[in-house]
Amino acid sequence: MGMKINAQLPLPADLKAEYPLSAEIQEIKKKRDKEIRDIFTGTSDKFIVLAGPCSADNEDSVCEYVERLSRLNEEVSEKLMVIPRIYTNKPRTTGAGYKGMLHQPEPDQAPDLLAGLIAIRKMHIRAIEVSGMTGADEMLYPENRSYLDDILSYEAVGARSVENQQHRLTASGMDIPVGMKNPTSGDFSVMLNSVTAAQSSHTFIYRGMDVTTQGNDLAHVILRGGVDKYGTCIPNYHYEDLVRLLDMYEKMDLKNPGAVVDANHSNSNKQYKEQIRIVSEVLHSRKYNPALQRLIKGVMIESYLEEGCQSIDSHRVYGKSITDPCLGWEDTRRLIYKIAENC
To answer: Which of 9, 70, 86, 280 is the most buried (most CB within 10 A)?
Structure first.
């Protein structure tokens, strides 16, 4: 047999009971969930900024980053809603490399899924305690989200997962916004079909149970750029791309049309400093076209305490990405101020 069972993992309910949320955190999440719902339904005209490291690899540095972000959020909260990116699952194109804290709570040690589940729950809880802000994570493994579904205020489905049936159907049972990224090909139709599926009711198997979902009216798209057949990055944040998305949305019967622009990945060709210029262009497009101002709900920025990235086997710098390169804190701070000034 090609699969070996390493350990029986606890049920989500048991892990939640061992690491529960305080009444204060539950109230924070309730308030934050309403705030973000109001943005996606058009009740609020605040602009969302999803900011954080490519992968959350260290509890102390992530929580320091989020604490700094919370102080910045207080200054811009009249115009912006800042949501920390606390991504604990890292998709890998070939399957090789660091897969995130869920797999490896210590990046340079062997995988330990039980320790990983405990580590990511504790980190998310601590991040809320130090910042008063609930965060975002990526739904890489649909069945694992049950360990964090009482904590998160936003989830993303990645470019490699967006065509997967289980991801789409699981998203349809969520009560928080879920962003469906365009696939690596850049195809808008695939992305919008995923939103259609996520906004619909479904009956399927989830964690060994026969379940029926109501549909998620907050499912929306994330533009992250694509790659052509020659491996060349093709951005999709330009004005013409946004207008094309708007036109496609208008021809579909979808609730709460909305889009978030991911300023890194294939949009920046992983040239992390380009995120500053890309966000500026998106803001300009929104100002120029009122319909785009209603459609584009926010931007996603990869940033950390220190700019750039480093290898796991190096003498690691505290607060520097061990996966994709990120903006440093000072650039992030200036960029968020600029976003607030232009919204």
So the answer is: 86
* Whether residue 95 has pLDDT greater than 80: no
Rg, Å, the chain Cα set = 19
* pLDDT tens track for 164-200: 999 999 999 999 999 999 999 999 999 999 999 999 9
* Nearest to 261, CA basis, from 221, 220, 301, 223: 223
Question: pTM for the complete prediction?
Answer: 0.97
Contact 70, 131 (CB under 8 A): yes
Q: Are the beta carbons of 66 and 131 closer than 8 angstroms?
A: yes
Q: Could you tell me which residues come within 8 angstroms of residue 117 by beta carbon, excluding any fewer than 6 positions away?
A: 9, 10, 15, 102, 144, 147
Q: How far is CA 55 from CA 35, 59, 91, in A?
A: 25, 11, 10
CB proximity list for 91: less than 8 A, separation 6 or greater: 138, 140, 158, 160, 161
- Give the β-pairing of 203-206 and 178-181: unpaired
Phi, then psi, of 35 in degrees rounded to 5: -60, -45
Alpha-carbon dihedral 41, 260, 33, 151, rounded to 10 degrees: 150
